[in-house]
Amino acid sequence: MLRIKRVPTMVSNYQKDTEEQQQVGCGRNCLRSCCLPGANLPLYTFKKVKNMMDEKMESPVPFLDSLLLGEWEDRVQRGLFRYDVTACETKVIPGQSGFIAQLNEGRHLKKRPTEFRVDKVLQPFDGSKFNFTKVGQEEVLFQFEETDGDEAQFFPSAPIDTENSPSVVAINVSPIEYGHVLLIPRILECLPQSIDHKSLLLAIQMAAEAGNPYFRLGYNSLGAFATINHLHFQAYYLAVPFPIEKAATRKISNLDNEVKVSELLNYPVRGLVFEGGNDMLALSDAVSDSCICLQDNNIPYNVLIADSGKRVFVLPQCYAEKQALGEVNPELLDTQVNPAVWEISGHMVLKRKQDYEEASEENAWRLLAEVSLSEERFQEVKDLIFESIACGEDGCETSTRSLDAELDAISSGADHSLVPGNQECLVQQ
Hints:
Belongs to the GDPGP1 family. By secondary structure, this protein is α+β, with helices and mostly antiparallel strands. The chain is 27% helix and 19% strand. It contains 12 helices and 15 strands. The strands form 2 sheets. A 12-stranded mixed β-sheet has the order 5-1-4-6-7-9-8-13-14-12-11-10. It has a 3-stranded mixed β-sheet with strand order 2-3-15. A hairpin with a 4-residue loop joins strand 13 (301-306) and strand 14.
């Protein structure tokens, strides 16, 4: 049985539509133009690190344990969370894989519903839907920015530079684990949920800056169980290895920039693993090129950033497509488990006590096997990715469309299938 720190159960006062308004701006102390003038937030600046494989990360501020968790605990005391995640039972499932099961009966009832189509990986940002500029400033732990200085610094209060949209770290008010936060790159630019080179590099930098192998970042694309179409990564601390981190791999390529690409073996979900490289940017670019390729081809996917940013898993998936086509076993659908990045990595968030009590390695394997692409389809996806990476390294023109062109096509009602050759599906959640 895993144990995590216990804190009092609190209910968020800032996520209720019926909240009594304050006398500032719109009254919700949000991150929009109505409330930003004159606002200040804590600021953490990290130094540029060109080679995360060789340079030891040192910081005058204990980033993860002291700052992030300290600020997170402060928000607990303020009552900003929808439920007490520390009251959730958690256990390691017996078996070789070491899947982790958590019973979280309230999360699916209190979590925000999906407000967009899930058959389109790329969709334009819609300001009328929920997005992170609508959260209270109280939910933001700190701004997270790169500095030209020689060392990291923390400023308890710093102005918000609205001209250069800040990246911020905020609490997840519907947490999966203690310390569950969101990294929101360039929050005021209102970017849709799609990875670009700058945002992926920022996420890897955060993992490297934390310097703790038990702190991982995850990403869910639209169609792979992202629930908010505003660019963000999730992160939390879990002091046991994820099963996917222990899975065997087989090397399939060494890129020109020394990034090694492998594929998972003996794991229920097929995926690629990127590691090494001449520097952090090389690794980030290889992963970004892969993600952009998947987005441009409308293939849902998840990303796990592990080993303090030194290893990144890219996991194309098809569960929502199978669900729409009626190809998922009804018993699995009854669990109401949406296999996103954490579930795929081996942290199974279960919503029914019966499923938690009967959790087994076999049941976890059955669910995740439904997520995985077939061997033939995975090979096609690998070919697309390596063609995209090769073009990125050589500077050649790719056949994939830019994000702006894709979003223009979506807005004009153009039809793009989930996977080339397959029919389009719409999943109701």
